[in-house]
Design a protein that fits this description.
Blueprint: H1 19-36, H2 40-45, H3 53-59, H4 78-91, H5 93-113, H6 116-127
Helix pairs in contact: 1-4, 4-5, 5-6
């Protein structure tokens, strides 16, 4: 795996990035080079997740990165979020999956639909890596294949 500090950029896309986006990329690349690449093969062989990296990722702003700073998140742009996920994926797909599920499939719904109390309680803890959320998507006969699921929600006449 590459330990380079610069992204191969044949099309000159890096020149289109803001200073903040470049900093996000460099921070994530340094994290992956320093913390992930040297250990990830042994974790994969043992079929384990490097849980000790969760709080480190939180301290770097990698969890819920596009959510507002008022909840302890980084408040990054969508472009910066994509760059961050790209760099985490370069190190390991499970680490990128963890970060994207925590931020997009768990934290974002709390932010968008939760009460003020839920947001204030959960989002800072999840952003810091002190609480880990999950998404359960399963059904008998189909597991986690959403296109094969038979369960459907239907609105009743009373709006529920």
């Amino acid at each position: 795996m590459s330990m380079t500090t610069e992204m191969t950029d044949y099309m000159g896309l890096r020149g289109l990035l803001s200073d903040e986006e470049k900093l996000v990329q460099q921070t994530a690349r340094d994290f992956v080079n320093r913390e992930v690449i040297s250990i990830i093969d042994s974790y994969a062989q043992e079929e384990k997740f490097p849980a000790h990296l969760v709080k480190v990722m939180g301290s770097l702003g990698f969890l819920g990165p596009s959510l507002p700073e008022e909840y302890g998140c980084a408040g990054l742009s969508n472009v910066a979020y994509g760059i961050l996920m790209f760099e985490l994926e370069r190190g390991d797909s499970a680490i990128r999956s963890f970060a994207s599920v925590q931020g997009s499939l768990v934290m974002y719904p709390i932010y968008a639909y939760g009460s003020a109390e839920q947001k204030n309680y959960w989002l800072p803890k999840m952003a810091a890596g002190e609480a880990i959320g999950c998404l359960g998507l399963t059904e008998p006969d189909f597991g986690s294949n959403p296109s094969g699921m038979r369960t459907r929600a239907n609105r009743n006449n009373d709006g529920t």
